Amino acid sequence: MGELPTRSAEQMLARLFFLIHIYAYARFKKSAQCFCSRWLKCYRKGKAMNISGIIGLGCFFGLLVLAAIMGGAPDTFVDMPSAIIVAGLTLGAGLMAFGFKDLWDGLWALRVFVVRVPDETLGGRQARVLRGLIPPAYAAGALGTIIGMMQMLATLKDLSSVRAGIACDILTVLYAIVLAEGLLRPGARYIEHQNALRERQRQT
């Protein structure tokens, strides 16, 4: 009987993600098709993949996963409430600050880690959006720490609740650091670096 609410919650969450996927597909179908066609053209020319970006992502996230596995309890690094707090608060702050279109353009620019993007499609606007999301990410980590501490103080007699509070307390900070320093800041620096190189080429 205790598993029924969990299953229903998982089904509702799955339906929500499905509806979001359908909306995103309908909203950005043309842009996705345009990007795929450009990617195929670049792939045929042998210029599609950003090898250095892929290696960098593999080193950053691969070493984190390897360290978690070597620690003997990798499942302790996975906590859905902590991920929801960090991702949700960061995206919410980004929507309030930049609006949907600019936020989408900034996040979509993170594809530069995997595929090569024409320089003219990258501008200071995307870099400003990515840099603007870094403080909300850290703020979300701090808020998650406060929420976890409140959970621990409210349920000191229940060990399972205390463990959940500790997970929310620590993992929100971890997720915030990974999001900010593993994706947002490197993405902004990459775009700024490409723009600086383009301006230098124009001057010469």
Report the uncertain regions.
1-7
Estimate percent helicity: over 70%
Mean pLDDT: 78
Distance separating the two termini: 72 Å
What is the succession of H and E elements?
HHHHHH
Structural class: mainly alpha
Q: Can you count the beta strands?
A: 0
For the report, how would you describe the main beta sheet? none
**Radius of gyration computed on alpha carbons:** 20 Å
β-strand percent reads under 5%
DSSP helical segment count: 6
Net shape: elongated
Keywords:
81% helix; 6 helices; mainly alpha; 204 residues
Account of the 3D structure:
81% of the residues lie in helices and 0% in strands. The protein has helices spanning 3-27, 29-44, 51-70, 80-108, 124-154, 159-203. The longest helix has 45 residues, at 159-203. Mean pLDDT is 78; it is low at 1-7.
Please describe the topology of this protein.
Blueprint: H1 3-27, H2 29-44, H3 51-70, H4 80-108, H5 124-154, H6 159-203
Short structural description:
The protein has helices at 3-27, 29-44, 51-70, 80-108, 124-154, 159-203. It is an all-alpha fold and 204 residues long.
